[in-house]
Amino acid sequence: MFKPIAQDVKTQIIGRIKNNGETVSKLALEYGVSPKTIYTWLRVKSDSSVSFLEHARLKRENKLLLEIVGKLTLEKNQISSLKKS
Fold it and tell me: What is the pLDDT of residues 25-52, one digit of tens each?
């Protein structure tokens, strides 16, 4: 049976995807909403050249890349310190 979702819940879900990069599948389970429903909301809400989903994906990738760069920088500094010793 169809259960209406409050607008504030929709806004919260979309915000968490857009701002926090959380996945649709995770939030669908958490809120008991179909992933297809959330994708529909995102498509309707998408009024820019980059969709919410693309934006969230890029944020996740950026975070991962920054972590990798940080680890590589730390390793490089440790190697440089060992060479100076």
Answer: 999 999 999 999 999 988 876 655 677 7
Query: Given phi > 0 = left and psi -120 to 50 = alpha, else beta, which region is 21?
Result: left
Residue-range domain boundaries for the chain: 7-84
**What are the pLDDT digits (tens) for 60-76?**
999 999 999 999 999 99
